[in-house]
Specification:
mainly alpha; Arc Repressor Mutant, subunit A; two-stranded antiparallel ribbon; two-stranded antiparallel sheet; WH_DNA-bd_sf; DUF480; WH-like_DNA-bd_sf
Amino acid sequence: MAITLTDKECRVIGVLLEKSITTPEQYPLTINALTNGCNQKSNRAPLMNLTEEEVKTILAALNTKRLIQVSTGFGSRVDKITQRFCNTEFGELKLTEQQTAIMTELLLRGPQTPGELRGRCQRMARFSDMADVESSLASLQAYQPDPLVEQLPREPGKREARYAHLFTEFNSVRSAVNISSTDSEQHIQAPEEDTQLNHLLNKVEQLSTQVCELTARLEILERKNH
């Protein structure tokens, strides 16, 4: 992978992508708006508490990598930031609307299942069904010259495998997954043999997906009302 990002750089790029789609009237973003977006309590994992000075340092690093552009608008002294991560004349990374939505969510929240992605991405792109999500994920896995996402090993007791982007060091992602799997194994004895427990876990995943979809619809309605 030609592009390697830190977790905080992923957050900044994710926010720029998200806001360019969901609130285009407020894009490009000021330093203040970008900082608020990074520290947002909803649709972020993990939660962060970055200062404007920290964001400026991150932007300097991203600017060196040519992944953002800082400009001052006509008649304004306030710097505005735009992303050059994908779908711009400056870079080679070209993504569809659905691929961009998935990549944005993975940058903002880390590894997620197809069901979670479908619910959370609806505010940025339309997915008609789960097959549509899985098709987009498959295309990101097969992206040339380098894959952009990878399917992680399914965790014990989970119905769906999670997917992660490949813009951070792979070993750190793998380590986090292994730790999570180990913890699950310590707390859940023989999950595959416990039918009732598996049923409950599947039900929780289904409810989580439904909540994500409802949240996305509410955000769309709120934007229309404003």
